[in-house]
Amino acid sequence: MIHVINPGLETTVQDTGRIGFYEVGMPPSGAMDKYSYTAGNLLVGNNESAASLEITYLGPELEFQEDTIIAVTGGEIPPKINGESVPMWEALEIKAGDKLSFDFVKQGARVYLAVAGGIDVPEIMNSRSTYTLCGIGGLNGGKLQVNDKLEVGNEKIRDVKPGTRIADHLIPSFDKHHEIRVVLGLCSYRLTEESKDRFFSIDWKVTPEANRVGYRFKGERLNFVEREQPFGAGSNPSNVVDLGYPIGSIQVPDGVEPIALLNDAVTGGGYATIATIISADLNKLGQVKTNETVRFVSVDIDEALAARNEVKEKLAEIKQNLSK
Amino acid sequence: MSQSKVLSPIPGVFYRRPSPDEDVYVNEGDAVSAGQVIGLVEVMKSYFEIKAEVDGVIESFAFENEDSIDAGQEIAVINVK
């Protein structure tokens, strides 16, 4: 069992996500940075879909009440065991009574705490992920609270020696300025050519409204092509007839402040989605902080799929290294 | 006299008042005690209380109300009692 002494700012139980219910309006939730999340599970010998803690900006203080192996992966929120700094991206031995705490965030926005066996909370629609807006999944449907108790599950499938590390070249690093690749569309035809160009040529600043639901950006106004709005579309030029929103899709309500929809977002609606973040870079966006800047880079679907394969190959390399 | 720096653990918008029509939590020159709230940082639609870690007197604030702030930045300096 793990005792939550202090929950941090927004610490939630997450796994690979609640997949397969998008068409009924249920977003997947799940880890924002799946690469780091998966690496954490591999490091502690878990099933790849075991539930971990997603920690945002400010780490929790936890007391372990049993011996176990843990790993902290993701951005850089430096972990400490009983007040002593310990490395990230490494399998760490924990003794009953040990306290895990964290220093201030150094880079990135989120870290994942994987525990051998996984975090055991009830599965809701095939997933343990917390979806706070609906109050389902995770521990009591929300972020961790003071004095919560977390049970450890039995998703451990192999032994990993404490001290085992992820190779340096497989550890991502995060800057304060980020390039995020997108595929243009679905409704990019609604933007004027000039605004399309501007979208890709300015730095967008991440506002404080940036969480698991979506990231809102400040930059400049974008303009839509004038037209008579079709039947079924709202009256604002940024409206279209309702459509399903791809995860990672970017909409620009009224032409101001683009919003990228993420893991906990609404699944459809009537705003023109002008571009969609590629799956490989959703991991990266999950590590972008408020006040940092993002430049969007246009790629085609082949480049997006190649980038997705690169992520898969890196995880395969981690798996291979760990099974040596 | 030693000084204690109050750092923001999170990025966001810094507020010196609990709400727009209330007074600031503390002014420069005011005495504060450890654990006392001296400001708020708003991020992800939630507000995080910034607290003094020591008893002392507020020497200075590095940020104005509604300034944006990064994780690790110094918010205020307290002269330790």
From TrEMBL, chain A:
One Pfam match: CT_A_B
Record keywords, A-Z: ATP-binding, Hydrolase, Nucleotide-binding
Record's keyword annotation contains Nucleotide-binding: yes
Residue intervals of the Carboxyltransferase domain: 23-315
Protein origin, superkingdom: Bacteria
Gene Ontology MF terms in the entry: ATP binding; hydrolase activity
Alphabetical list of SUPFAM superfamilies matching this protein: Cyclophilin-like
SMART domains noted in UniProt: AHS2
Protein name in UniProt: Allophanate hydrolase
Organism of origin: Oceanobacillus chungangensis
UniProtKB/TrEMBL annotation, chain B:
Family annotation (InterPro entries): AcCoA_biotinCC, Biotin_Carboxyl_Carrier/Decarb, Biotin_lipoyl, Single_hybrid_motif
Keywords: Biotin, Fatty acid biosynthesis, Fatty acid metabolism, Lipid biosynthesis, Lipid metabolism
GO CC, one annotated term: acetyl-CoA carboxylase complex
One of the Pfam families matching this protein, by short name: Biotin_lipoyl
Boundaries of every Lipoyl-binding domain copy: 1-79
Source organism superkingdom: Bacteria
Pathway(s) this gene product operates in, as recorded in its UniProt entry: Lipid metabolism; fatty acid biosynthesis
GO biological process: one example: fatty acid biosynthetic process
Example of a GO MF term: acetyl-CoA carboxylase activity
Function: This protein is a component of the acetyl coenzyme A carboxylase complex; first, biotin carboxylase catalyzes the carboxylation of the carrier protein and then the transcarboxylase transfers the carboxyl group to form malonyl-CoA.
Protein name: Biotin carboxyl carrier protein of acetyl-CoA carboxylase
Protein's organism: Oceanobacillus chungangensis
